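Q: Convert this sequence to structure tokens.
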Amino acid sequence: MKREEALALAREFVKNEGLLRHMLAVEAAVRGYAARLAPDEVDTWGLAGLLHDFDWEIHPTLEQHPQEGAPILRARGVPEVVIRAILSHAEHTGVPRTTPLEKALHACDEITGLVTACVLVRPSKSIHDLEVSSVRKKWNNRQFAAGADRDDITAAAAEFGVELWEHVGNVIEAMRGIAGDLGLAGA
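A:
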């Protein structure tokens, strides 16, 4: 499956622009890691990031998401390695994360939301001037971006084998590359 097809699939099922931007942010972060760790698999890793929450609006419960989305992806020709990564990104599926792709997807999911929230409270509204230190300042305020589970973010980075603040920097850098698509290029 080509990226254009995956994006069309995402847009078919996702109507909420914020959710679509989240999926794009995760795609960018995962692609950033793939460029370093698996350069021949950048597109495959990108598909996992882009499609990981494609079914959230039609399957908005843990009993359904992402496991009930998997048959849709199979019917659309999404590679099984991508589907398995998507299934493994959610703890409740019981699908263990064993590959670098699976670990990267899990590590990049929650952190993109926290990074986005940090950008949106900046006067500039730009990711281009966001530094790791700014995210670090917001880290201990659990009321800020309360949906971004700090314990999960920390554990996911450790499982992936990347120091937390290095990971935050890597994700910021990857998201900068598509700042306009994310609505984070500035006011």
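Residues 19 and 53 are 8 Å apart (CA to CA).
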